Amino acid sequence: MPLKGIKVLEFVGLAPGPLCGKILTDFGATVTRIDKVLDNSLDVLQQGKRTLCLDLKNVKGQQLVQRLAQECDVLIEPFRPGVMEKLNLGPVELCKANPRLIYARLTGFGQNGRLAPRAGHDINYAAISGVLSMLGRRHEKATAPINLLADFAGGSVMCTLGICLALLERHNSGRGQVVDASMVEGAAYVASWLFMSRNLEIWGRERGENLIDGGSYFYDTYETKDGRYMSVGALEPQFFELLKQRLHLPEDLCQFGEEHQDRGRKLLTEAFLSKTQTEWSQIFEDVDACVYPVLDYREVHKHDHNRERESFEVIQDAPAPRPAPLLSRTPGKLPKVTDDRQLGLIEELNLKPHELKDLLDTGVLTLPEKAKL
After folding, report:
1. Kind of pairing between the strands at 312-315 and 229-233
2. For the chain, how far is it from start to end, CA to CA, in angstroms?
3. Closest by alpha carbon to 258, among 213, 205, 207, 221?
4. Residue-wise pLDDT tens digits, 74-110
5. pLDDT (tens digit per residue) in 311-340
């Protein structure tokens, strides 16, 4: 495991922080969650992590975190700027005590700037990043891709990248640093190509009227006879010709030109409604026309390609994606439900028996039952 031996403290917030911790966990890091409650059913990404329930408003709880941070490599915190400082757990205090600590701060607007203290959600961060203005059908309002863009791509993944870069740099300098991960800036950075390609011929029109943002009938999704969908990405001429052949479209139908767009969309809509998704999948099985089924998330693990690559595992009756990317020697792996990573946690707290009893009795610290073994 590439991150074996790396110790992480994750302060639990909404989903972006937990996904960051999950990625580190899946690639071998030991991640200890600091949560307000012991049983947090909203955090569906805690598998393989260890949990401490701490009252951080209590000085003794703060002191315990300070002690843990001295032995950790990474700390992840998702709170608004200033919250950790009020708890005496800011980077100034913790990084002074542990100069090798990588202190990752994952927020919507970053640690400074006019909006830094403001509340927000993925749709707001995507809006301020400028990326949301590019997403949506023509003549319709801008549409956010659920909360994938800012929360997870721009937030979790970019924060994890920052942590790994800081770990790599620490290998040379021996020093930690603060990672200021803003979901606004992360979402914009993920969309670098969208920003930097605006002078290409594929753009130049309003949102939803360009080549790959919904304006082309040969780059879209279409409903099938059984209420499912097929994805069509026949951008290149050779793919488009194969699409026409398999759909038995008129020979004079072209990719480009205003007069072909509505006609083409109508023809493809009618064609795909004539057969089921399975039938169309078979028709396009042996040809590179860039046409593939839109797999239902509940059945994606059953697809033969995904089965062959073992891209998903079934955990608690639901498919879970395998850690990506796949490393040849030290691949990541999903923790099993039976993994018992709570064991040994008490020893790592390095508390004397009377200290542990006092923390437990006063409710400053709550441990899972398995950790008490």
Report:
1. unpaired
2. 27
3. 205
4. 999 999 999 999 999 999 999 999 999 999 999 999 9
5. 999 988 889 999 999 999 999 999 876 556
263: exposed, middle or buried (Cβ count in 10 Å: 0-12, 13-18, 19+): middle
Given 55, 121, 303, 358, the catalytic residue: 121
**What's the alpha-carbon Rg for the chain, to the nearest Å?**
25
pLDDT tens, position by position, 26-71:
999 999 999 998 888 889 999 999 999 999 999 999 999 999 999 9
CB burial string 1-39: b at 16+ within 10 A, e below: eebeebbbbbbbbbbbbbbbbbbbbbbbbbbbbbbeeee
The conformation of residue 227, written as its DSSP 8-state character, comes to S
Q: Which helix (H) or strand (E) holds 280?
A: helix 277-283
Query: DSSP secondary structure string, 58-122?
Result: SHHHHHHHHHHHTT-SEEEE-SPTTHHHHTT-SHHHHHHH-TT-EEEEEESS-SSSTTTTS---H
The type of residue at 217 is Y
Q: Is 151 designated active site? A: yes
Q: Which two tokens stand for residue 60?
A: 């003794």
Of 205, 150, 163, which is closest to residue 9 (Cα–Cα)?
Answer: 163
- Given the residues 43, 73, 151, 220, the one annotated as active site: 151
Q: Which residues pair with 91 in a beta bridge?
A: none
Angstrom distances, CA of residue 21 to CA of 106, 155, 238, 254 = 11, 12, 44, 49
DSSP H helical ranges for 114-157: 122-129
Q: Are 272 and 294 in contact (CB under 8 A)?
A: no
Beta bridge partner(s), residue 179: 104
Q: Is 121 a catalytic residue?
A: yes
Half-sphere exposure of 265 (CA within 13 A, CB side): 13
Full-model pTM = 0.93
Q: DSSP for 9-35? A: EEE--STHHHHHHHHHHHTT-EEEEEE
Q: Are 223 and 280 in contact (CB under 8 A)?
A: no
